[in-house]
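for the recovery benchmark. tokens below, seq after
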């Protein structure tokens, strides 16, 4: 049914206030499930992010057959130290500045981004926004 042009729609026409489509409800449920998973792992993820921002060190063990593996526990490190300096090597990954900036943004709040627009003479430009429907 078509409404007459220029006439208001009758009361009760259209979707009720606050209506959400089924696809929107599914998306909200998925977002909440994702939020709960991330929140549950927040402490270890934050500690890993902090370690990444500081730089990560790890030990590589050399085996007699010439292969290498990464040391994963204290017993492996102790055995490598007892075998001598030729049996292991320590590598350090450079600190990640992006990880640090992200952590600071999350903890302290994002720093304001200021931009100054200047004209050809170097002076700041004055920006005037005019509404096309407003009279001058």
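predicted aa per position
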């Amino acid at each position: 049914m078509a409404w007459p042009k220029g006439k208001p729609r009758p009361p009760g026409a259209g979707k009720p206030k606050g209506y959400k489509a089924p696809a929107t409800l599914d998306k909200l449920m998925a977002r909440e499930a994702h939020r709960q998973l991330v929140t549950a792992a927040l402490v270890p993820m934050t500690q890993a992010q902090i370690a990444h921002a500081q730089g990560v060190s790890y030990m590589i063990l050399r085996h007699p057959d010439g292969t290498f593996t990464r040391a994963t526990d204290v017993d492996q490190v102790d055995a490598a130290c007892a075998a001598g300096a030729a049996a292991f090597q320590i590598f350090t990954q450079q600190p990640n500045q992006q990880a640090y900036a992200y952590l600071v943004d999350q903890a302290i709040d994002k720093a304001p981004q200021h931009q100054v627009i200047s004209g050809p003479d170097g002076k700041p430009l004055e920006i005037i926004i005019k509404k096309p429907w407003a009279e001058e």
